[in-house]
Design a protein that fits this description.
Blueprint (H helix, E strand, L loop, with lengths): L2 H7 L2 E7 L4 E4 L1 H6 L7 E4 H5 L4 H17 L3 E8 L5 E15 L5 E12 L15 H20 L3 H10 L9 E8 L2 E8 L12 E2 L5 H8 L3 E3 L2 H7 L4 H5 L5 E9 L2 E10 L7 H38 L10 E8 L10 E7 L5 E8 L4 H19 L4 H17 L12 E8 L5 E7 L5 E3 L5 E3 L4 E2 L12 E5 L5 E5 L1 H5 L5 H12 L11 H16 L18 E8 L18 E7 L7 H11 L6 H21 L4 E8 L6 E8 L19 H8 L2 E6 L4 E8 L55
Parallel strand pairs: 17-20
Antiparallel strand pairs: 1-2, 1-6, 2-3, 4-5, 5-6, 7-8, 7-12, 8-9, 10-11, 11-12, 13-23, 14-15, 15-16, 16-17, 17-21, 18-19, 18-22, 22-23, 24-25, 25-26, 26-28, 27-28
Helix pairs in contact: 4-10, 5-10, 11-12, 14-15, 16-17, 17-18
């Protein structure tokens, strides 16, 4: 009996689908099953396709493509439709894709197989549904959507492997997974799940020529399905003992292919039998493709992170070596997005004189070019400093250097010139003397031994790279034992929608926190303080505020802390019987910088931030403004301000001195009702507890003192109780009745009131 007769007897037809020519050859039984006359026929594929239900056609199209890729059978269930769109019957198709080479050299395929009618369960019966049902399809689609989203969100190889291990496939979840990678001619385990420690040892360095399913998958790029232990043992007898000890009964090995290149293999092993139907193979193949893409993305991301972190590490210095009498802590945090590189930097530079320099800077931008310019500028600054140049000369040369290298890029793709801010501080570890030069950078901050925090105003010039030849004046001040200086970039202050004022208030709360009371801070706590400052911007606490002040991590952060050891060798430590240390600040206001009078007033308010009587603080600020303004108006020199608050809270004494190079002493005036000057001495007598003038070898020093009062004195607030001023012993002879200057002989015009509203006019 012929084969065709046997197949017809069991209602099974033969067909050959030639994809290259677009024709389908049917025998008589196959034509009958498709609702056509029962005779052999060759039809265009569009005629045959019209006999299938549209949903089933989409299904079989994917199954055939999968079978072509895996070189396996294509199995599907199809509903046959008549001309009126009614379902005639349901058939099962089993076919084998066979490659054909077309005359033009193109490789195509044709399907050779059978179709057979199957009985559909009637409504109300208990017939078991086949795996290919609408519910299964919906479960599969939902699973693939969830798996795709989870794998797309994984940012590292470890996260991808954890996601792969947690996948619960609909109806056939594996209990053992392994991902194999390829390095040269070797196969290795990248990650695994469902195995014990050491189980991966035989597979960690396996040659690709080994008779092992994963190795063959990598060599051929085709999936291997082993539904039973017998299939495994028959196809791979040499490596069957390696798999036998795990007690699995079904295995699927699928290639991990990205851009046409096989980068590894994925194994899914089952403790229950799996037949690997077309739909199951389709799910596994789809997961393998997503897994390959996720591993590729994670590998690229890890390489980029390693590259950028290595770049930043190579350009960032270490804080050491240890400096006697000083402790240093530093942090650098790049932006959260992109390549995580930027232009912020810090450096600690040993100098030929035995001193050392602290440098902190910020090159404009957060990209690769900013990082490159930062590295060049850091090397240039270190070179200039190592030659022994003073702070102002170092910044002047650095500005000329940055201008030169940015101008040379104007004709390239980098068309916008870049600038950089910088703060250079030369430190003497023996005396605590600091000499600072600033190029458009935020001022340094000093934390005194009693916890008071002051922003130290320093003279400055333009940012580096704007004008080649720029002068940078130098400011000197002293870091007392136990005090801490903070240098930072604007990313620490302004990140999260803050401006300079609100950002500074956020940092001041951290610096003055009770966690760092005097006597408890050491080197470890200096590191902790650096972490707290960064966490104030990037930590959980930065998310407590919603709206415009929410943390957005839009700028790099660099911060350096320098602490001078206390008298007993500890940083910020106090003696066993603590004595409240005096607060002291010093500030120079030059003739050419009248705008710094505002900084002097701010210094006094920050120094007296916890003073009991707010009106006394206002009085001190008013008198300081008058004293400094008069120096600028009536002398040719600069004003040197020294302020000190000593004693226990509630009973402290504030002493403020303003020195100038003039020998002229202040005189008491009797200004008329409309006079705009001449009231300085009267203010001193009414507002200060004591005041006076101390002549010096060259110039004089005018001082006043205030004694802290827990409750305001009504005698100083009620105008009716104000005492009538009397001439003080330090005053000179009484001049004529004409209005005169407050604290010195009149010389030159009054300062521009636009500089400081109210300065010198009371």
């Amino acid at each position: 009996m012929r084969t065709e007769d046997v197949l017809a007897a069991i209602a099974t037809g033969l067909w050959r689908w030639d994809n290259a020519s677009g024709t389908v050859t049917l025998d008589s039984e196959a034509a009958r099953l498709l609702g056509l006359p029962a005779e052999p026929v060759v039809l265009p594929e569009v005629v045959v396709r019209s006999r299938f239900h549209p949903v089933d056609w989409n299904e079989i199209n994917g199954i055939v493509n999968l079978a072509v890729a895996e070189d396996t059978l294509a199995e599907a269930r199809l509903r046959i439709m008549d001309e009126d769109g009614r379902v005639l019957r349901t058939v099962r198709s089993r076919s084998k894709p066979v490659e054909n080479r077309c005359p033009d050299g193109r490789v195509d395929y044709e399907l050779v197989g059978t179709i057979q009618e199957i009985a559909e369960p009637q409504p109300g019966t208990t017939a078991v549904h086949t795996p290919i049902t609408g519910d299964w399809r919906r479960s599969r689609e939902a699973f693939l959507l969830d798996a795709g989203r989870a794998l797309a969100e994984a940012r590292s190889t470890a996260e991808v492997l954890r996601v792969a291990a947690s996948l619960s496939m609909p109806g056939f979840s594996p209990d053992g997974l392994a991902v194999f990678g390829v390095a040269g001619d070797r196969l290795s385990i990248i990650g695994h799940h469902g195995h014990g420690p050491g189980d991966e040892d035989p597979f960690t360095d396996m040659r690709l020529e080994t008779d092992y399913p994963a190795a063959e998958v990598v060599r051929t790029g085709r999936a291997i399905y082993l539904p039973s232990p017998e299939d495994y043992k028959r196809r791979f007898p040499a490596t069957w003992p390696l798999a036998q000890r795990f007690g699995r009964v079904s295995w699927a090995f699928l290639p991990l292919i990205v851009a046409g290149r096989t980068m590894g293999a994925w194994m899914a092993a089952f403790k229950h039998p799996v037949s690997f139907s077309p739909d199951e193979r389709s799910v596994l193949t789809t997961v393998a493709r997503m897994l390959a893409q996720a591993l590729q993305r994670a590998g690229v991301a890890e390489s980029e992170r390693e590259l950028t972190s290595g770049l930043q590490r190579s350009m960032m210095p270490t804080v050491g070596p240890h400096i006697p009498g000083m402790q240093i802590a530093a942090r650098y945090v790049p932006t959260g997005g992109g390549l995580e590189v930027g232009g912020d930097w810090y450096d600690v530079i040993p100098l030929p004189s035995g001193r050392f320099a602290l440098v902190i800077g910020d090159v404009q931008g957060h990209d690769v070019r900013a990082a490159g310019l930062m590295g060049q500028l850091r090397i240039a600054v270190r070179a200039y400093a190592s030659e022994g140049h003073r702070p102002d000369a170092v910044l002047s040369r650095a500005s000329r250097f940055l201008t030169g290298i940015t101008d040379s890029h104007e004709e390239s793709d980098f068309r916008s010139p870049r600038f950089a801010t910088c703060l250079y501080v030369e430190c003497d570890p023996q005396t605590g003397l600091l000499e600072a030069a600033r190029a458009g950078h935020p001022d340094p901050v000093i934390r005194m031994t009693d916890g008071t925090v002051l922003m130290r105003p320093t003279a400055g010039g333009l940012p580096l790279g704007i004008v080649a030849d720029t002068d940078y004046p130098t400011t000197q001040f002293t870091l007392e034992p136990g005090e801490t200086m903070m240098l930072c970039t604007d990313g620490l202050i302004e990140t999260g929608g803050h401006d300079l004022d609100t950002g500074w208030a956020r940092l001041r709360a951290i610096l003055e926190s009770e966690t760092h009371e005097p006597g408890t801070r050491g080197s470890d706590d200096l590191e902790e303080l650096a972490d707290l400052l960064v966490q104030a911007v990037h930590g959980p606490s930065s998310h407590h505020t919603t709206g415009p002040l929410a943390d957005r991590r839009e700028d790099d952060i660099a911060v350096v802390l320098l602490c001078r050891d206390g008298g007993d060798g500890g940083c910020g430590a106090l003696p066993a019987r603590p004595v409240r240390p005096a607060r002291r600040t010093m500030l120079t206001v030059a003739q050419a910088e009248p705008e710094r009078i505002a900084g002097a007033r701010r210094q006094i308010r920050e120094l007296l931030h916890d003073w009991a009587d707010a009106e006394q603080v206002d009085s001190a600020v008013l008198m300081v403004s008058e004293m400094v303004t008069n120096v600028l108006m009536h002398t040719d020199g600069d004003a040197l301000l020294v302020a000190e608050a000593a004693g226990e809270p509630g009973t402290r004494r504030l002493r403020i001195e303003v020195a100038d190079p003039s020998d002229e002493l202040p005189h008491k005036r009797h200004p008329g009702e409309m006079a705009s000057s001449g009231r300085g001495v009267l203010l001193m007598e009414m507002l200060a507890d004591s005041w006076g003038v101390d002549p010096r070898g060259e110039g004089k020093s005018i001082w006043f003192e205030l004694h802290e009062q827990s409750k305001p004195d009504t005698a100083l607030t009620d105008p009716a109780l104000l005492p009538v001023p009397e001439p003080g012993p330090a005053l000179g002879p009484e001049p004529g009745p004409e209005p005169g200057p407050e604290l010195g002989p009149e010389r030159g015009p009054a300062p521009d009131p636009r500089v400081e509203p109210g300065s010198g006019v009371v």
